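Quick one, tokens below:
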């Protein structure tokens, strides 16, 4: 969750490469844990990649 929030904050500051570097490992971890939050992180990551 910390990586997710760091990615979110970096994206808000316009630091898209840094945001992606936080969100990708967050997504991998959440997917391994089969967390329902993985879908939200995936959506955030997709949105940032499209906007960068």
């Amino acid at each position: 969750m910390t990586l997710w929030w760091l990615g979110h904050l970096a994206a808000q500051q316009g630091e898209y490469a840094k945001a992606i570097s936080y969100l990708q490992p967050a997504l991998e971890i959440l997917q391994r844990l089969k967390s329902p939050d993985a879908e939200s992180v995936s959506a955030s990551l997709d949105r940032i990649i499209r906007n960068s």
